[in-house]
Amino acid sequence: MKCQKCGAEIPENKIYCEKCGAPIQMVPDYNPVDDIRIGEEKKIPVPEKLAETVTEVLPSRKKRYILAGILAAFFGVLIYQTAYRIILKPVQETETEAVVLLEEPVFSLPSGTYSYMPTLTISHPQREEGIIYYTTDGSTPNEDSQIFNGPIEIGEGKTVVRAVFIRNDGMQSEEADGTYLVEFDYPEEPVFSVESGEYQGSFSVIITAEPDCTIYYTMDGSDPDQSSSVYRGPVFIPSGLTVLRAVSVDEEGGMSGIMEAIYKVQEIAPAEEPAQDAAPAETVPNS
Predict the structure, then answer these.
(1) Is the pLDDT of residue 287 over 50?
(2) Strand pairing partners for 14?
(3) If you classify domain 106-182 with CATH, what class do you get?
């Protein structure tokens, strides 16, 4: 081996020149240009400006290391982009296409506020090929939920209905939902023309209510409802104890509170006729 500085022969196992004292470089200089040439043979595109930079920075070893890092990053990005286009992107597209849901069920009523108790029906275009499941408490419907077999009556307050359709082959639809708020505008209680109390002799009571309301009443103390007697005229109160109760019901089914009156009626005894004077005794003439 010869000294690269003075050209003198250097014995084996020596790490410096005995003539000029220069250290011996055991590993040949790394030349990035060789890598670039190899890349060109493999048709790997290398920016023209990058190749020019390689030639300019050859005298500096530190810069050569920086350049090697830049080249490694460049080829790493290139490899990642190629792998993404060939492998990762098709896999993601396949997974997206695999999640297919059927059309969601259809509600007969839109979400909103109602002043009466509405009735909700749920349908689906493929109804004969599967089952509709639903919940009314806002929870997620599934195969353990209620099965829709008929109209759902929405009661007073807030109700959240959620439904899905599951076909016989297990395919599930998108979820449908609706929020319903039922608030009644209750009518006022009926008004009696006679207040509760004790009375002498029978009488009649007139019951009045708001316009467009129907009055229902009972006389035995039971709660009146829409199956009770309909008020059509004054109610006769006989002698004895009578508990009169009545409610008003508007056209939308809103029912008022119960109005009550208790009547204790004493029967009036008929007046006694005055006694007639006795007829005078017949006088017998003297003979």
Answers:
(1) no
(2) none
(3) mainly beta
Region at 108 (left for phi over 0; alpha for psi -120 to 50; beta for the rest): alpha
pLDDT average, residue stretch 181-193: 91
pLDDT, one tens digit per residue, over 244-284 is 999 999 987 889 999 999 999 998 877 666 666 555 555 55
The answer to whether the 106-182 and 191-266 domains have the same CATH topology is: yes
All structural domains of the chain with their residue ranges: 32-97, 106-182, 191-266
Quick one: average pLDDT of 38-62?
54
Element counts in the chain: helices (H) and strands (E): 4, 18
pTM over 0.70: no
Instruction: Show the tokens assigned to 250.
Output: 């508007």
As a 3-state breakdown, the chain gives helix, strand, coil percent values, each rounded to 5, of 20, 30, 50
Query: Distance between alpha carbon 240 and the CA centroid of its chain, in Å?
Result: 58
Residues 6+ apart with CB under 8 A from 239: 201, 202, 265, 266, 267
Residue 239 and residue 202 in contact, taking contact as beta carbons nearer than 8 Å: yes
Instruction: Could you please state the CATH topology (level 3) that the domain comprising 191-266 is classified under.
Output: Immunoglobulin-like (2.60.40)
Looking at every residue in the chain, the average pLDDT score rounds to 82
d(CA 248, CA 254): 8
Q: Are 261 and 221 in contact (CB under 8 A)?
A: no
Q: What is the DSSP letter of 86?
A: I
pLDDT in tens, 203-222: 999 999 999 999 999 999 99
Task: Please check the confidence at residue 20 and state whether its pLDDT lies above 80.
Answer: no
